[in-house]
Design a protein that fits this description.
Blueprint: H1 2-15, H2 39-49, H3 57-69, H4 71-85, E1 89-92, H5 100-106, H6 109-124, E2 126-135, E3 141-147, E4 153-154, E5 159-160, E6 170-171, E7 182-185, H7 193-217, E8 221-225, H8 231-242, E9 257-261, H9 270-287, H10 302-337, E10 346-349, H11 357-368, H12 376-382, H13 391-411, H14 433-446, H15 475-498, H16 506-524, H17 545-574, H18 578-618, E11 626-630, H19 639-642, E12 648-650, H20 656-659, E13 670-674, H21 681-695, H22 698-705, H23 712-715, H24 729-737, H25 767-776, E14 779-782, E15 785-789, E16 795-799, H26 800-805, H27 821-829, E17 833-837, E18 846-852, E19 857-864, E20 870-877, E21 887-890
Parallel strand pairs: 16-20
Antiparallel strand pairs: 1-10, 2-3, 2-7, 4-5, 5-6, 8-9, 11-12, 11-13, 14-15, 15-16, 17-18, 17-21, 18-19, 19-20
Length: about 900
């Protein structure tokens, strides 16, 4: 069947061969013009290529001339081509399996020509080419590649012209040629040869002068004497010297004297030699980025050469990725049009199977010293070592003693283990040793899923103004180890009882939220709060942004708990016994609630310090209009952060939106305020350049992708929405919002009513009196806005417009709202429950305050606005349970 499909594919290719005339049949080619080149020729050709109506004919003539005659350009560019053509290219389907029909094309000359054409687009600036597919005499797919002459391309318009001087031609972006012609490079790019050509021309002039110098001064000066009287003798002597030639044989008349003197003057050609070498070095830098691996130097040592070699490797890696992306965007399109099945496939570079000693030592240390689980198959595949046929037998013998120790340790675990049914209890004498070993092997493979956190390594987090160090950083380790051990067994037991359906674990959430809150509070310098009375201990004068941070930590803790519940369910479905489930679940929870929680705790401290600093500095911009970025400047500082060390920028510079610390897990950077007198224009200019390099660096792009690269203080965030535990925050929000009172172990609504009597102070027709009574007790923030502080000193506002709209008797639902106004302040200052949820889909930024009375419950809904203001949105009697859901903050 596969053979028939393959044959049909080949037939389609052959049949499609004549569907359109190759582009070569539509153009008249003229040879490249070789002529004397100088700098004025280079400048004129460049101006012509960059003019309003671009003409690259003269520039391409120049490129062809230097790329075929300049030895340095040929050697250097050949290195970049070799790195591409010698890579192990392969085409795989969506499942990663090789596709034979297309891989046959990779083994033909046409594919090598294609690779060179793609990489050459970096040198020439742009390339067009057209493949012609056919079946060779061995019955295999093959293709020839026709490179469209550069002088016939009009990249800016997407045309190929018949004559190199024409303006109009074939539009390759439409019609059949759009499916047969590939385009590589950028239309307005003139390529690397533009710069290399200048140095080549300079070198060519110097080389010519050098050759003339050698011809003149390359051999000694002949000093000949004659007697001064016999003219015939002089003529014979002159003839003998002229006929001497390079062989050094001379016949002279009697009475004459000849002396050949060596040239010992200073004119030895060193000037030309140095100049040519310098031009070659510039060409290497332009085309390769370095010089040491192309030209030897008597002044450079091994270390410098090794650095240049690493630069070459980076350049090669960049080229490989460029070519790979070009193949996947252009060549695949052509293959599909030619009849090949490319659906879901991609061109890849197979990794060489050779032993890298450095990598091997790292992997070995990760497994042996750090205890990070790495699967055995990884070593076989990574280093190309053949796996023995009796691998399982050998492995079983090797691990037999280890498994006995592991089983003994498991038997002694002090865990609350529920009784197991006969079906569940697999730890019986009937279970053979091989089955146990397979389970333990699965256990080790599974642990690879739980990647380690970037631990703090006893680093001190630096305070906002540099000299301050947090004194209680070790609290993170205490919280993430001893404190968690007190609840871990309970969490595992609940997950086991849930039998793979654990939706959420409230105790795990409370532990995570409390720990992170303590960290941020420590950074902000306020007192921590007790478990399950979550939230910050506010001061009246604290900025409203604290509420945004608080909500952010609650959401992050909720997302992390949902993720861990999902992991526990997955482990339950794969485990065969409670012991196996306990071991894997315990390891997973330790990773996330010891190692990772320590890192997250430290990040919360750093974010708290920076938020406090930021809000203070924003009030002092008149005195300190500049901010300076600082690192600890030790050996552990990240290279990317070291680039920012000591930069100084105005406080309102756009870059602070991306570089304000913390900038990564366990970041120790901080900000120092500077007065205008402390800053020079030179420092500002240098800082601008450093920031631009940082923002353009791969390190920043990687960090931004991981949830960094934002101003957390300005956005009221410690962690970004999709940071670490989810890539679909909308789904997580929906799942958190669906958590109801039953998930939190609370009673139904009607079972919570208490003895407190609800007695309205005003009648149904006393709306204005009720509003006046309510507002008279409040602090006036503005002429149209009032302020209330809740049970935790959060600042909450309500404006006159909300009061008026929510007491408008023209609407049925608002006719009795004024009756509850007198209780709003009491509900906020002494609530029975507080929930965080996405009320009416408002970004999970609403607090639901709820208080029970003898026959009803009343709620006040407060939402955080985009300006980070916590504002009363509505209040009313609670008629259903829809508002008793989300994350429970206070109970």
């Amino acid at each position: 069947m596969a053979k028939n499909n393959r044959q049909r594919t080949k037939q389609k290719i052959v049949a499609g061969k004549n569907t359109s005339a190759p582009i070569i049949q539509n153009i008249s080619i003229q040879p490249f013009a070789r002529q004397s080149q100088d700098i004025s020729s280079w400048r004129n050709a460049t101006r012509s290529a960059e003019s309003h109506i671009p003409r690259r004919v003269y520039l391409y003539d120049l490129y062809h001339d230097i790329s075929t005659t300049d030895g340095q350009i040929i050697a250097v560019w050949g290195k970049r081509q070799d790195a591409i053509t010698t890579a192990n290219w392969e085409f795989t389907d969506k499942d990663g399996n090789p596709v034979d029909e297309i891989n046959e094309l990779i083994d033909c000359i046409g594919f090598e020509d294609l690779l060179k054409e793609i990489i050459d687009s970096k040198a020439w600036g742009y390339s067009m080419c057209e493949p012609t597919f056919f079946i060779n005499e061995n019955g295999q797919n093959e293709f020839e590649l026709y490179s469209v002459p550069k002088k016939h391309m009009r990249p800016e318009r997407g045309f190929i012209v018949k004559h190199q001087t024409d303006d109009e031609g074939i539009n390759i972006n439409d019609g059949i040629y759009n499916k047969t012609i590939m385009k590589f490079g950028k239309a307005n790019d003139l390529g690397l040869l533009l710069s290399a050509a200048m140095y080549s021309i300079y070198k060519r002039g110097s080389t010519s002068d050098w050759a003339e110098f050698i011809e003149i001064f390359g051999r000694g000066i002949i000093d000949a004497e004659w007697d001064g009287f016999d003219e015939g003798q002089r003529q014979q002597l002159a003839k003998a010297i002229r006929e001497m030639g390079s062989g050094g044989i001379m016949i002279r008349p009697s009475g004459t004297k000849v002396d050949i003197k060596n040239n010992t003057g200073n004119a030895n050609g060193q000037l030309q030699d140095t100049f040519v070498s310098k031009m070659d070095a510039y060409i290497s830098k332009v085309l390769l980025g370095s010089t040491e691996t192309t030209d030897s130097s008597t002044r450079s040592g091994y270390a410098q050469a090794e650095i240049h070699q690493k630069e070459d490797q980076k350049k090669n890696e960049s080229d490989l990725q460029f070519v790979r992306r070009s193949l996947n965007s252009q060549f695949i399109k052509i293959l599909k049009a030619a009849g090949f099945d490319t659906k879901g496939g991609t061109f890849v570079i197979k990794k060489d199977k050779n032993l890298d000693k450095t990598s091997y030592e790292i992997h070995k240390s990760m497994r042996k010293d750090l205890g990070i689980p790495i699967d055995d198959d990884f070593y076989y595949e990574e280093y190309g070592v053949r796996k023995p046929d009796n691998y399982e037998e050998l492995k079983n013998e090797l691990e037999d003693s280890k498994n006995k120790a592991l089983e003994a340790k498991s038997d002694n675990k002090n865990a609350v283990t529920p009784e197991l049914s006969e079906e569940e209890n697999t730890d019986t004498p009937t279970e053979n040793k091989v089955d146990k070993l397979k389970k333990l092997s699965w256990f080790r493979r599974l642990l690879q899923l739980f990647h380690p956190a970037p631990t703090a390594q006893n680093r001190q987090l630096v305070g906002a103004f540099g000299d301050h160090h947090t004194s209680k950083i070790q609290l993170a380790k205490f919280t993430a180890s001893k404190a968690f051990d007190t609840i871990k067994d309970d969490v595992i037991q609940r997950a086991w009882i849930a039998k793979g359906t654990l939706n959420f674990d409230t105790q795990l959430y409370e532990f995570t939220a409390t720990t992170l809150t303590m960290g941020f509070v420590q950074g902000w310098k306020t007192k921590p709060t007790k478990l399950m009375d979550l939230g910050f201990s506010y001061d009246v004068n604290d900025p409203a942004t604290l509420t945004a941070y608080e909500m952010n930590l609650f959401r992050f803790a909720g997302a992390k708990t949902l993720y861990e519940a999902q992991q526990l369910n997955e482990l339950f479905r794969k485990a065969k016994s409670f012991r196996e489930f306990y071991d894997t679940a315990s390891s997973m929870l330790d990773v996330h609630n010891k190692a990772w929680l320590e890192t997250e705790y430290n990040t919360a401290i750093a974010a708290g310090e920076m938020a406090s600093t930021y809000n203070r500095l924003m009030k002092q911009t008149d005195n300190f209009p500049y901010w300076q970025y600082k690192t600890v400047a030790d050996e552990r500082v990240r290279h990317s952060h070291a680039l920012l060390h000591d930069i100084i920028l105005p406080w309102n510079h756009p870059a602070w939106k991306y570089i304000l610390p913390p900038n990564d897990w366990n970041c120790r950077c901080w900000i120092v305020p500077r007065t205008k007198a402390e800053v020079t224009d030179e420092e500002l200019k240098a800082s601008e350049e450093k920031v631009k390099l940082y923002l353009d660096s791969p390190e920043f792009k990687k960090a931004a992708k991981g949830g960094w690269g934002i101003n957390r203080a300005d956005k009221g965030q410690v962690f970004t929405e999709n940071q670490h535990y989810t890539t679909d925050y909308l789904d997580v929000t929906k799942r958190m919002n669906n958590l109801g009172y039953k998930d939190w172990g609370l009673k139904p609504l009607d079972q919570n009513f208490n003895a407190k009597q609800f007695s309205p102070k005003f009648g149904e027709d006393q709306i204005e009196d009720a509003i006046e009574y309510f507002t008279d007790k409040l602090k006036k923030v503005t002429s149209k806005k009032f302020g209330i502080t809740d049970y935790n000193n959060r600042i909450i506002t309500i404006d006159k417009a909300t009061l008026k709209s929510h007491t408008n008797t023209r609407y049925q639902k608002y006719r009795t709202r004024h009756l509850y106004l007198s209780e709003v302040e009491n509900i906020l200052t002494a609530p029975d429950e507080v929930w965080l949820q996405n009320y009416r889909n408002q970004k999970y930024q609403s607090f639901i305050y709820l208080k029970y009375y003898n026959d009803q419950a009343v709620v006040v809904v407060c939402t955080l606005t985009d300006s980070l203001e916590l504002k009363i949105e509505t209040w009313h009697k609670l008629d259903d349970t829809r508002l008793r859901r989300g994350l429970l903050i206070k109970n």
